[in-house]
Write a structure and sequence with these properties.
The chain is mainly β. The chain has one domain. The protein has one helix at 60-63; strands at 8-11, 21-28, 37-41, 46-49, 55-58. The chain has a five-stranded antiparallel beta sheet with strand order 4-3-2-1-5. Strand 3 and strand 4 (46-49) form a beta hairpin. The chain is globular, with a radius of gyration of 11 Å. 11% of the residues are buried.
Length: 65
């Protein structure tokens, strides 16, 4: 998984009825776009994440399609 600043990280819900959690990558802390990432959630709080298999990166160019 590789991401850049400004990409969105989508963590899919794990149970029926749970919504996806979307955050924006504000800093790439790994080398060459690899995790961990500092992300900002829609409510404004930030966290450091090393995404698992339930996550997907939406690159900036893909978001506008």
């Amino acid at each position: 998984m590789r991401a850049s600043k400004g990409d969105r990280l989508v963590q899919h819900g794990r149970v029926v009825g749970q919504h996806d959690q979307v955050s924006e990558v504000v800093e790439v802390m790994g080398q060459e776009g690899n995790p961990p990432y500092r992300v900002r959630f829609q409510d404004g709080h930030e966290a450091i994440m090393s995404p698992g298999p339930d996550c997907q990166v939406e690159h900036r160019g893909e978001q506008q399609r």
